[in-house]
Amino acid sequence: MFFSVRYHSEMTTTAILGQGYVGLPLAEALCEVGDTVLGFDVNEALVARLNSGSSHVDDISDASLAKMLAAGYRATSVPSDLRLADVVVICVPTPLHPSGAPDLSYVENASTLVAENMKPGALVILESTTYPGTTKNLLRPMLEEGGRELDADFMLAFSPERIDPGNAKFNIRNTPKIVGGESGKSGEAAADFYRRFVSEIHVTRGTKEAEAAKLLENTYRHVNIALVNELAMFCHDLGIDIWEVIRAASSKPYGFAPFYPGPGVGGHCIPVDPAYLSYEVKKRLGVDFRFIETAMDINNGMPRYVVSRIQRILNRDEKPLRGSKVLLLGMAYKPNIADLRESPSLEILEILMHEGADVSYHDPLIQTLRIGEQVVAGVADASTAAAESDVVVLLQAHAAYDIDALIGQSKFFFDTRGVTRSDNVERL
Ligand SMILES: NC(=O)c1ccc[n+]([C@@H]2O[C@H](COP(=O)([O-])OP(=O)(O)OC[C@H]3O[C@@H](n4cnc5c(N)ncnc54)[C@H](O)[C@@H]3O)[C@@H](O)[C@H]2O)c1
Questions:
Q1: Considering its fold, how many domains does the chain have in total?
Q2: pLDDT, tens only, 348-375
Q3: Confidence band, pLDDT 50/70/90 cuts, at residue 10
Q4: Annotated catalytic, 269?
Q5: Does ligand 1 lie within 6 Å of residue 109's CB atom?
Q6: Do residues 272 and 399 share a domain?
Q7: Domain residues for 416?
Q8: How far is the CA of 18 from the centre of ligand 1 (A)?
Q9: Would the N or C end of the chain have less CB density within 10 A of its end CB?
Q10: Contacts of 144 (CB under 8 A, 6+ apart)
Q11: Whether residue 333 has its Cβ less than 6 Å from ligand 1
């Protein structure tokens, strides 16, 4: 069946596989344009939670979820519900195996569910970040099983998600969206679908270009962060203030984009996505993607570097790391959210525990966290803990922190984020 559609709200039922940081905000945007939205997730506890009105995603409040439910949003774990959908969007995780290789098992499982429960003529869009060729070589053959044909029986596109959790300025609606179709018709249909709620659509030649564009964006960040991290280490030894250097270079109105050093890179994307690109280059072409390998080396070494700096601070006070009281402030990988995924702060905490420091942490948004099998509870009051510590380390500058007051209460204050200016603070 040929399926040519201009998506009109009153006719579109959209199913989103994966109701996480990407899938749930997408569901909200689609509810707002009048789609009937099915939030499909294999996590049944999460489905029950969402249907009861409780959101687990920072950017979607319970009040927003209540509006979605009132507009007809429904979370489900029932695969046959996918048969109702005119459009199916896949937003499932794409992590790495412990070996460092891409783990596409979630995409494969989701694609199997779609292939087995697809309405004739449905538009299928993959949003999960992945290496170029995934849509063409993995998803498409699965959807073609049983003799189905692209454009006649289904349409297929890739459109990378660019959501930036906690970003008050850019959201799903005002961030331009890249769309690449497996055919011209698929690309057009996917562009029409997003045009209803995204301000600007950029259509690529095909799916591979759209997949590679997302990896370029995140590799660009990864490599530039590594550049300033390496420079920060050299600047410290040369007695140069790296933060002042970046501020000065940023005064150039063209040809320079500032990136900032820190205790390492975290989150679902920056530490993971470049590995998808280097893996594919190595597998297909047999060569190393040298920039990515070097950037990984540097960024992955930052937690150990931060610990070495803590050691040097304590040294000046003739104290060993073992037994010294160290307070870590802010454990999430970015400010003002509770997301701990791949957060370098976890590695710093783990190293300090392993070295025998009397380490504690505070994060206004994270009451407990897990290091291996151990559940670690945060301290309730940052000020009291700061006053009792030998060194206080700012790992994440959450807006809730009164940093000047905390500096005043601390014996030594080590700022790994460059948010302080005063002389009585040690900066990365
Ligand atoms: N979080 C971000 O800021 C961000 C930004 C851009 C792109 N991405 C990419 O988007 C994708 C999703 O990331 P996320 O942060 O939303 O992940 P997430 O872990 O927050 O959510 C993924 C959800 O998918 C569910 N799931 C797993 N297998 C499933 C299946 N077979 N069918 C249905 N649901 C399934 C999980 O239970 C989970 O609830 C990843 O590829 C990620 O790299 C994430």
A1: 2
A2: 999 999 999 999 999 999 999 999 999 9
A3: low
A4: yes
A5: yes
A6: yes
A7: 225-427
A8: 5
A9: N
A10: 150
A11: no
CATH of the domain at 130: 3.40.50.720
Is 175 within the bounds of a domain?
yes
The residue out of 172, 204, 236 marking a domain boundary is 204
pLDDT band at 163 (very low <50, low <70, confident <90, very high): confident
Residue 77 CA to ligand 1 centre (angstroms)? 15
* pTM, rounded to two decimals: 0.91
Closest ligand 1 atom to 23 CA: 16
Does ligand 1 have an atom closer than 6 angstroms to the CB of 73?
no
Pair type for strands 368-371 and 374-377: antiparallel
The rounded distance, in Å, linking the Cα atoms of 84 and 166 is 32
User: How far apart are the C-alpha atoms of 39 and 23, rounded to whole Å?
Assistant: 8
CA distance 303 to 349: 9
Among 26, 28, 40, 41, name the best residue to mutate to test ligand 1's pocket (greatest count of ligand atoms within 8 A of Cβ): 41
Contact 202, 179 (CB under 8 A): yes
Q: Are residues 141 and 262 in the same domain?
A: no
Q: Residues of the chain with pLDDT > 70: what percent?
A: 98
pLDDT-based confidence at residue 58 (cuts at 50, 70, 90): confident
Residue carrying structure tokens 């270009």 = 209
Considering only CA atoms, which residue is closest to atom 5 of ligand 1? 163
Confirm if 306 and 266 have CB atoms less than 8 A apart. no
CA distance 387 to 409: 5
Q: How many angstroms is it from 91 CA to the middle of ligand 1?
A: 5
Active-site entry in 31, 91, 235, 269:
269
| pLDDT interval class at 167 (50, 70, 90) | confident
Structure confidence at residue 6 (pLDDT): 54
The pLDDT value given to residue 7: 54
If we measure between CA atoms, which residue out of 34, 4, 33, 30 comes closest to residue 187?
4
Q: What is the whole-number distance in angstroms between the Cα of residue 93 and the centre of ligand 1?
A: 4
Q: DSSP label at 119?
A: P
Take residue 366 and report the two structure tokens written for it: 């994270």
CA–CA separation, 219 and 393 (whole Å): 28
